[in-house]
């Protein structure tokens, strides 16, 4: 993909400029690298002289000194007992109160059948043959689809592809079963676990909430045990996948030696919009069939075979603000047809939620060098009224990989610009949007699977997952790789075609 160079100034300098462009100076680059190295390793540099002094002092000890110390302690038995008791007490307290580590054993992403593929031409043909859209809105759909960033290999459910479409509760359950059971079957095979091993079950699907619930459907199909702790999250938007991860993390703190199964998905069948309100039509262009199943564990014995360890989860909710609350709303149009409206304020609201989220996440993950630069500019601006721009931390120093919810091309463009990311960092998100479309809360896992299929995940690498959702919410999760992922041993929806990616995604795709 050809994207504008982030280092290129917006106003190119004139040819008569005499001063050098210090921002492009290679020497300045090494000064910044040296600064980051100095601050990051400052503690080691500070302690090095102290270690040398201690080593020099220890080298002067003789064999008689340890014997004299032992003789001294023999006559201070009470002191020895008190110190030993205190040491045992503090050690016990630490092991009992420290958070249990949460491991991601494995995950799987659902890949629908080839018969469910929907090219852009098929999409437009279907829209025309339904007979419900005006000619103006058909032109609008064609124009938006050209700029959507989606390719010709995304998937739609059978009920939507049929002529005429036949959305029904039966068809919606059929889609949900195919997605959930397909992802779970593959996960159980990859992780070598049995259904009876699952102690915690969390299913999230925003717009489809039948009775019995989706979690009950899973329990019934796999005959999960009777004392399972199950939850069904609805109406929480595209960021509900990370909310489910956060909920599973908290539950694993109080349920020792447990497996948690998280299922993230959305249902298209009953949520396809057949009206002519343009604010509701946009969701038809973006959302496609997809789902993911994730297996988490708090067993220390699973560390060796797990892929990742959960480091942080940060949740931000802006629902107290009316504008944020109403920017994504499911409602009826003037003709009584239900759809999801997207407000014009959506991008501004998402940006504000992201700012709040990374303000909380930054101190947890950024190196000290970046935090000091941010603090210095903040103090200069607030206290000394200096006319300086707020410093935007370089999150590329904190993470090797980013998985940004593939909500749409505009969202990805804004995050790339604001976080100053490279094409390489954006590639998993853009390729997921192109190949699978917006699969709602499961898109983050298609993106992580892409990085694995490309052989990019190395032991110790940190991955940042970011998702947005109605309400309005912005949620983050940080994972650390416990081992290098060998793509030759992986099974994912990308493996059969990963050699075809990345592809060039034109700004306007004519069809």
From TrEMBL:
Which domain of life does this protein belong to?
Answer: Eukaryota
Q: What are the Beta-ketoacyl-[acyl-carrier-protein] synthase III C-terminal domain coordinates in residue numbering?
A: 401-480
Keyword Nucleus on this protein?
Answer: no
Kindly list the places in or outside the cell where this protein is found, as annotated in its UniProt entry: Membrane
What does it catalyze? a very-long-chain acyl-CoA + malonyl-CoA + H(+) = a very-long-chain 3-oxoacyl-CoA + CO2 + CoA
Q: Which GO terms describe its molecular function?
A: fatty acid elongase activity
Lineage start: Eukaryota, Viridiplantae, Streptophyta, Embryophyta, Tracheophyta
Which InterPro entries does the protein's record reference?
3-ktacl-CoA_syn (IPR012392), ACP_syn_III_C (IPR013747), FAE1_typ3_polyketide_synth (IPR013601), Thiolase-like (IPR016039)
Q: Which GO terms describe its cellular component?
A: membrane
Stated name of the protein: 3-ketoacyl-CoA synthase
Which family does the record claim for this protein?
Belongs to the thiolase-like superfamily. Chalcone/stilbene synthases family.
* Pathway named in the protein's UniProt entry: Lipid metabolism; fatty acid biosynthesis
Keyword check for Disulfide bond: no
Query: Where do the TM regions start and end?
Result: 33-55, 75-96
The species this protein belongs to is Pistacia chinensis
What Pfam families does the entry give?
ACP_syn_III_C, FAE1_CUT1_RppA
């Amino acid at each position: 993909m050809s994207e504008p160079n982030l280092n290129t100034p917006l106003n190119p300098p004139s040819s008569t400029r005499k001063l050098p462009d210090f921002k492009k100076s290679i020497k300045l680059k090494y000064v910044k690298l040296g600064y980051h190295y100095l601050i990051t390793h400052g503690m080691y540099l500070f302690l090095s002289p102290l270690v040398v002094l201690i080593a020099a002092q220890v080298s002067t000890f003789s064999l008689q000194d340890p014997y004299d110390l032992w003789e001294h302690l023999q006559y201070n038995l009470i002191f020895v007992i008190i110190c030993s008791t205190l040491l045992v007490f503090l050690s016990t307290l630490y092991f009992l109160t420290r958070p249990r580590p949460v491991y991601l054993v494995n995950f799987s992403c659902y890949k629908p059948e080839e018969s469910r593929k929907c090219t852009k031409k098929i999409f437009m043909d279907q829209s025309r043959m339904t007979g419900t859209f005006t000619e103006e809105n058909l032109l609008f759909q064609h124009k938006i689809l050209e700029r959507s960033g989606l390719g010709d290999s995304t998937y739609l459910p059978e009920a939507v592809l049929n002529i005429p479409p036949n959305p029904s509760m039966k068809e919606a359950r059929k889609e949900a079963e195919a997605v959930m059971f397909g992802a779970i079957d593959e996960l159980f095979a990859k992780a070598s676990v049995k259904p009876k091993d699952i102690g915690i079950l969390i299913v999230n699907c925003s717009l489809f909430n039948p009775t019995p619930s989706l979690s009950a459907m899973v329990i019934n199909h796999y005959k999960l045990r009777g004392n399972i702790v199950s939850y069904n999250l609805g109406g929480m938007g595209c960021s509900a996948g990370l909310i489910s991860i956060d909920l599973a993390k908290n539950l694993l703190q109080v349920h020792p030696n447990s497996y948690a199964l998280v299922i993230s998905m959305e249902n298209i069948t009953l949520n396809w919009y057949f009206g002519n309100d343009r604010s509701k039509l946009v969701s038809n262009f973006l959302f496609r069939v997809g789902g993911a199943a994730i297996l988490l564990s708090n067993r220390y014995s699973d560390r060796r075979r797990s892929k990742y360890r959960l480091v942080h989860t940060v949740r931000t909710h802006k629902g107290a603000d009316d504008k944020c609350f109403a920017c994504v709303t499911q409602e009826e149009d003037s003709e009584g047809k239900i759809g999801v409206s997207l407000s014009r304020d959506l991008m501004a609201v998402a940006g504000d939620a992201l700012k709040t989220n990374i303000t909380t996440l930054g101190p947890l993950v950024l190196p000290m060098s970046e935090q000091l630069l941010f603090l210095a500019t903040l103090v200069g601006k607030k206290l000394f009224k200096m006319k300086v721009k707020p410093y935007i931390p370089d999150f590329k120093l904190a993470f090797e990989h980013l998985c940004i919810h593939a909500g749409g091309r505009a969202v990805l463009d804004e995050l790339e610009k604001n976080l100053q990311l490279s094409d390489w960092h954006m590639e998993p998100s853009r390729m997921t949007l192109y190949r699978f479309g917006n699969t709602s809360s499961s898109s983050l896992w298609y993106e992580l699977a892409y990085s694995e299929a490309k052989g990019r995940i190395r032991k110790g690498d940190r991955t940042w997952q970011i998702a947005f959702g109605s309400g309005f919410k912005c949620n983050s999760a940080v994972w650390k790789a416990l081992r290098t992922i060998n793509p030759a041993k992986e099974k994912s929806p990308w493996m059969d075609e990963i050699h075809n990616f990345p592809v060039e995604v034109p700004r306007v795709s004519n069809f």
